[in-house]
Amino acid sequence: MDTGYAALSAQLPGGGWPIGTLIELLVAHPGIGEMRLLRPALAAPSTRSIALVQPPHVPHAHAYAYFGIDLARPLWIRTAKSADALWSAEQILRTGSCSALVLWQNHIRAESLRRLLLAAQSAETLFFVMRPLASAPDASPATLRLGIRSVKDGISVELIKRKGPAPAEPLWLPMLPSPILLSPHRRAREQADVAPATPEELAREAS
């Protein structure tokens, strides 16, 4: 699937995000542009849902509307235990009920990643796992691993793992302004992609 960023797509095997596998996005800290990086892929036309499992912030309806995503599509899943989040992600992958799945996990064992990879291979789902950049040295079965850092007017993307040799230098990708800057409910979070919102705000934005 096309990433929406020509410079990035040119560096990926197949010319875009691979479907039916595990992609890791290793982020220096949440809210630096990782969701804006995924915006073109998540906004691609589809009748299936987009699953957001254990995001660090409450998904903001205004942001997803700004991304061009039908507000009926995002499916927010928050669990009390990490094991339940992993189970939910695995079931979503095995059923193929969603066009895309984004799972946030700070700590995840290699065996859990392998289970998710096997589940992903059985469905046509675009599957991302968001992890801290500090996880880069850890072994991973992911087909593709990207390290993401904040830089002026955009993000720096390092191809940590891909088929074939990695570029010598990270890619610089410009990012559009965060949608929260345009929201009447914006908070003082200059680098946040998705700001927390109350249930009342979510309901009002979705109406």
From TrEMBL:
Superkingdom of the source species: Bacteria
GO biological process per UniProt: DNA repair
UniProt keyword annotation of DNA damage present: yes
InterPro entries registered for this protein in UniProt: ImuA_translesion, P-loop_NTPase, SulA_CellDiv_inhibitor, UCP037290
Region (Disordered): 187-207
PANTHER family xrefs: BLR3025 PROTEIN-RELATED, TRANSLESION DNA SYNTHESIS-ASSOCIATED PROTEIN IMUA
NCBIfam families the UniProt entry points to: ImuA_translesion
Listed name of the protein: RecA/RadA recombinase
Species of the source: Caballeronia sordidicola (Burkholderia sordidicola)
